[in-house]
Amino acid sequence: MTFMTATDVTVPRPETPLPPITPIVLSGGTGTRLWPVSRASHPKQFWALASSQTMIGETLQRATGEAFAPPVVVCNQAHRFLVAEQLRENGCENGRIILEPAVRNTAAAIAAAALVAAQDNPETLLWIMAADAAFRYPERLPAVLEKAEKVAREGYIVTFGMKPDAAETGYGYIRTGAPAHPDRPDEGVYHVTRFIEKPDHLRATEMLREGGYLWNSGMFVAPASVMLAELARHEPEVLENVRIALEQSQHDLTFCRLDEEAFLRCPSVSIDYAVMERTDRALVIPADLGWSDVGNWNALWELGDKDADGNVVVGDVVLEQSHNCYVRSEGMLTAVAGLTDIVLVVTTDAVLAIHRDYAQDVSALVAQLKKASRTEAEIHNRCYRPWGFYEGLIQGERFQVKRIVVYPGQKLSLQKHFHRAEHWVVVSGTALVTRDAENLLIQENESVYLPLGCMHRLENPGRIPLTLIEVQSGPYLGEDDIVRFEDTYGRQ
What we know:
It catalyses: alpha-D-mannose 1-phosphate + GTP + H(+) = GDP-alpha-D-mannose + diphosphate. The chain is an alpha/beta fold and about 500 residues long. It has three domains: about 20-290, Spore Coat Polysaccharide Biosynthesis Protein SpsA, Chain A, CATH 3.90.550.10; about 305-370, no CATH class; about 380-485, Jelly Rolls. A hairpin with a 2-residue loop joins strand 21 (about 390-395) and strand 22 (about 400-405).
């Protein structure tokens, strides 16, 4: 496998077909400020928070069509099957998935994606974006992208600057400079004077009043060759180690696993610092897309459809004499009376109640939970697997009860446990169960017992999801009590 080296920027000749736009989707975040819904095991991009579609699904849908090459998604390896499922559900089966063995910020992730995309065509245009942004006016996006594409093909890195409508302290800012083309001052493309880190409220208010400042959306459009050349110029250590990590990568199923040793040598640095703040090729296009990075619960209140009292409700919620609240229930009935400007989020295993003004402080609560070694900080009660999911129902001394759902045609690994026995009761669908030398077909309302130490496997041979209740019993019920002998998905 060979990868392009940093070269001088070239522009395709007018008579040559223009290379396609390759969407680069960065899906490495965990969204702790949206706890308890967003957690490390199932972060915000895989939830339908701003609409009926998952956030990564919306992102992929924005970049489909004849003008686009298959997307490249960079993600944490723990989320690989979630990403693969999202690609499948959104018609992007040919998309490529790059797995990061560790968090090394956006410069390393973008370097990996750019190198992979450049294998097809060094001049392919990259559209780099986070997997978890929302747009109130998505219909305006194509016109902005078309403008960015035209300018980027001249050899620039174009970022989208969002027109601010509030003194937001949760975003970085971009100071616009002179028009990129003085002969076309009405084009709406500008040089970047500087990038500003997240300001305090006073400074954000001053910038809003002064004008000429835009929110930094973290979206970029640039030829792969330009991005790689600028990384080589300003952060060669990042680019070189990512190149080695790709050359030594392992491939299984649809995943490209970056070499861990080489990738860990990468400095952890953002693309803003690595390139955008130092390059002379940065341009910005002001855009009014109603953009939000959905960084906290207050952002979801701002994006949501409000009732006559300014409340946003999701799920089974009843309100009385409450105003400007965001209330979300992931299951149980949630009743609220006499509250104003609060966020209330109810999941199956945790409840968050916080004033909207303190929405940024949720991450501090998560830090407390981690310090106390609470599993709720990072792991959901419902855990997703490539074959489906399971969720805990009851847990007591020496026993626990789970609901297991296996998608049609999928199967668990061939495995055994040293410390627990299991009893499976089929609620709906049909189960094909391997128990040592036996193969058993278990129908609805039937059950099977798996004694401690037996080799077993569960499979759904049918066309509808298989749902069963699992009762575990034994002295130790941890998920690490599992020995896999064979696995369709390459897990150890």
